[in-house]
Inverse folding.
């Protein structure tokens, strides 16, 4: 997209770009912390930082709805249950875990990851990105909602089935391990 | 304005970080977190391309990915907690009962 | 450039007013709660104890800041900040009044009018839960850990019920923006159509901000203050401020969603009274209500809280949503 901005707005665009760079740094730094931290809780914090950075990028890309969903689902639900898991399943030797970094493992991981990125990147760059003919940028939420209940209604129903199965499954798994315990009531 | 290729590059790097994490770490909780990172990389590229193409199609898939990720995390963490109760370990290489 | 200056000014004003009201809400709570329990409350610092918040602030500031030996230091320091920042950020999307004209320039009485404001609020209150959880975990203290787990479980459970309740309001107003939701209530407030949702929202909100009948995370009687047990000085003050900021923003959000924002019901107008006055009056009354119920209800047991959330609020909210949908379809 190439807009031409009035000089007054250029400053705002500059601020937005600085924010974009900030979000990128947050995303990458958070990701590295999530992978590399020794303390589990620090890793979860890194994950949260990375997820919030991605949410910020969504805002920059103009999708407030997706950004809000990202914060609501990933930060508000998924990561909280991660923190729960860390609290419940606290490995006793957490801090003095075995050596973390093996050069060969890191190397092989990086090679595989770069290969995947290369393949995908080739495909992305080779693909001629053409805009769809009918586009309305207004009302993303309405657009998504209508699309969910018309074009993708089958996937939508399938997803709700997946969610139902997941809820039931996790309740059953969590309940079975708890027969003899003294935990407080209520499951998450 | 920042070109959309940067977003794609970032999403590739995010995916790579998650991928390395899955290969390097042994803690199952961290493995789940790395999977979330990889899914986020994918989501980011969906959104970037949807923005580039001005279409809502990519956003729908982001929606689906998020839903499935939430379900996956719920089940995965329930398994992890149960595993810890039974085997006192959350390390992937110590969970080897099925190895024969 | 005007836009930028205006925004910065607005943020500064709202921030200052919020912090001021946080300080004086603590005084209001102590005075009013004291009266409910037939005692005076603070009355030494200044006339009617009006300088008490200042004295409290100074005291917090000059207390020794203790970091216990075995805490997870970065998380321990970060937790109070994580608790406070979302509580303040929520205020950014709340519309306080209609637009007014200052120096010949139309100024809207909100910092930003986000088109997904309701989701933003839900998301931020989810982030706020991390403050208590991480604080309790990092303290390396059994009471702290129990408080942290309770806080997390309670927040997730009630956030679900809250979201379900909000869906019926969103269906009625057809928008996620608070400004539009308020604009739709100039004649009939949402509470007239959705009394059930109002009650559910208040209950879920009180649980979400860990207010008294639901203050399991810090239950003094059994957990000795729970997640903030190891905190002292300014770090404790940050948790404390977060609690009251949450209370004020919950009141403001309830006013916007159910009580017509800055509007009087049935399109009534009172001359010479700026509309923001009605907003402030409603928020004030709600805060008084929150203090009143704190003085009235005993604390619930933990399993009772979980049962209430999952077995009562959630189903009622879903049924309310269904009924709203059916009625809206029938009426057209």
């Amino acid at each position: 997209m190439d807009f031409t901005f009035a000089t007054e707005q250029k400053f705002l665009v500059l601020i937005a770009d600085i924010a974009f760079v900030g979000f990128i740094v947050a995303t990458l730094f958070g990701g590295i912390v999530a992978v590399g931290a020794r303390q589990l809780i620090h890793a979860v914090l890194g994950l949260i930082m990375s997820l919030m950075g991605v949410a910020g990028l969504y805002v920059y890309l103009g999708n407030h709805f997706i950004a809000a969903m990202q914060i609501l689902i990933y930060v508000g639900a998924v990561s909280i249950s991660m923190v729960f898991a860390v609290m419940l399943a606290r490995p006793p030797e957490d801090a003095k875990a075995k050596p973390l970094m093996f050069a060969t493992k890191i190397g092989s991981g990086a090679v595989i990851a770069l290969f995947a990125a290369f393949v995908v990147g080739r495909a992305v760059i080779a693909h001629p990105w053409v805009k769809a003919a009918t586009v309305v940028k207004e009302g993303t939420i309405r657009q998504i909602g209508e699309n969910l209940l018309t074009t993708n209604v089958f996937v939508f129903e399938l997803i709700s089935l997946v969610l139902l199965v997941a809820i039931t499954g996790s309740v059953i798994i969590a309940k079975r391990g708890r027969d003899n315990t003294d935990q407080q009531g209520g499951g998450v | 304005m920042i070109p959309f290729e940067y977003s794609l590059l970032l999403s590739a790097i995010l995916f790579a970080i998650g991928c390395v994490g899955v290969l390097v770490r042994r803690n199952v909780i961290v493995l789940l977190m790395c999977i979330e990172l990889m899914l986020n990389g994918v989501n980011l590229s969906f959104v970037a391309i949807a923005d580039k193409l001005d279409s809502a199609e990519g956003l729908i898939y982001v929606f689906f990915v998020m839903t499935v990720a939430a379900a996956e995390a719920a089940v995965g963490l329930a398994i992890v907690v149960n595993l810890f109760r039974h085997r006192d370990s959350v390390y992937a290489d110590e969970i080897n009962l099925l190895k024969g | 450039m005007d836009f930028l200056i205006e925004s910065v000014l607005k943020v500064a004003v709202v921030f200052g007013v919020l912090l001021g009201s946080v300080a004086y809400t603590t005084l209001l709570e102590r005075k009013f709660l004291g009266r409910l329990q037939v005692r005076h409350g603070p009355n030494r610092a200044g006339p009617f104890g009006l300088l008490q918040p200042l004295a409290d602030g100074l005291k917090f500031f000059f207390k020794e800041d203790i970091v216990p030996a075995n805490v997870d230091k970065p998380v321990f320091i970060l937790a109070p900040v994580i608790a406070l920042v979302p509580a303040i950020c929520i205020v950014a999307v709340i519309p306080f009044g209609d637009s007014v004209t200052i120096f010949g320039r139309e100024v809207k009485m909100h910092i930003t009018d986000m088109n997904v404001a309701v989701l933003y609020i839900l998301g931020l209150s989810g982030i706020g839960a991390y403050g208590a959880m991480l604080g309790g975990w990092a303290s390396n203290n059994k009471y702290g850990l129990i408080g942290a787990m309770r806080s997390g479980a309670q927040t997730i459970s009630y956030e679900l019920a809250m979201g379900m309740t909000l869906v019926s309001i969103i269906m009625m107003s057809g928008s996620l923006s608070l400004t539009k939701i308020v604009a739709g209530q100039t004649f009939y407030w949402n509470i007239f159509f959705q009394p059930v949702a109002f009650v559910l929202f208040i209950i879920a909100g009180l649980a979400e901000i860990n207010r008294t009948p639901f203050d399991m995370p810090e239950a003094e009687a059994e957990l000795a203050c729970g997640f903030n047990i190891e905190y002292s000085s300014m770090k404790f003050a940050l948790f404390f401020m977060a609690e009251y900021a949450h209370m004020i923003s919950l009141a403001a959000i309830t006013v916007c969603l159910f009580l017509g924002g800055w509007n009087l019901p049935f399109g009534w107008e009172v001359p010479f009274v700026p509309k923001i006055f009605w907003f402030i009056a409603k928020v004030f009354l709600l805060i008084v209500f929150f203090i009143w119920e704190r003085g009235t209800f005993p604390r619930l047991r933990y399993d009772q809280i979980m049962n209430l959330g999952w077995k009562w609020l959630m189903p009622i909210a879903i049924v309310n949503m269904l009924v709203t949908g059916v009625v809206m379809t029938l009426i057209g």
